[in-house]
Fold Protein fem-1 homolog B.
Amino acid sequence: MACYDGRLDIVKYLIEHGADLNITNHYNNSCLMIAAYKGAGHLSVIKTLVHAGADVNHSTKTQSTPLRAACYDGRLDIVKYLIEHGADLNITNHYNNSCLMIAAYKGAGHLSVIKTLVHAGADVNHSTKTQSTPLRAACYDGRLDIVKYLIEHGADLNITNHYNNSCLMIAAYKGAGHLSVIKTLVHAGADVNHSTKTQSTPLRAACYDGRLDIVKYLIEHGADLNITNHYNNSCLMIAAYK
C-alpha cells in the first residue's frame, strides 16, 4: 500500500524493519511494479526498492514488467532509471508486445521514451502476435513525429499484420489527420498499391472514408484505380456506395 501511494517515508521504514520486497499479489505484481505503474511522484520509491534489492525484471501474470508500466505511462525518468539498473528491453507480454510497442501505441507524449528505448537497443521491428509493429502503432494514431523517428532508425515499412495490412493501409484507413503520415511513408518508399488479404488498398480505404485529399495524393503517386477487392468492387464502387 505504501508503494501504491508513493509514501517514501513509510516504504523506507518498513524495509528497515524487515518488509519483504518480493511478496507479490494475486496478479503476481511486485512492490516495484506497483510503484512503477502508478507513475507520478514514485521515482524515489522505485530507487529505494531497487537499492534494497528489488528485481527490476520481475514479471506479472501477463508478463508485464516495471519498465513496461513506465513506458505505458510515458514516465521518461523512470524508464531511464530502470534501464540504467538492468531492466530488460526485450521482455514481451502475453500479446508479445515489447516496451517500444507500448510506448508507440500510447501516442501523445511518448516520443522521448521511444528515443530512449531505441538508443538503448530496442528492436524497432519487433512484431506482436498479430504482426503489428511500433511503426504501425504510430501510423494508426497519426503520430508523425514518431513515424519519422522510427523510419530514420530502421523501421521496416513493409511488415504487414495478420490481415496483410501495411503501415500505409493503416494510415489511410484511419482517415482524418493522417495525410502527413501517408506522405512520409510514400516518400520513404511505401508501396501505394499493396493489397490486403481482401485485396483492399490504401486508395480504396481513402475512398471508403471520403478523404479527397488522400485520394488525390495517392493517385498522383501511382495508386491503381482499377484494383478490385475480393467482391470485385472498384474504388469508384466504394466511393459511390458510401
User: Anything to note?
Assistant: The chain is about 50% helix and 0% strand. Residues 111 and 146 are 6 Å apart (CA to CA). The chain has two domains: 1-123, 131-241.
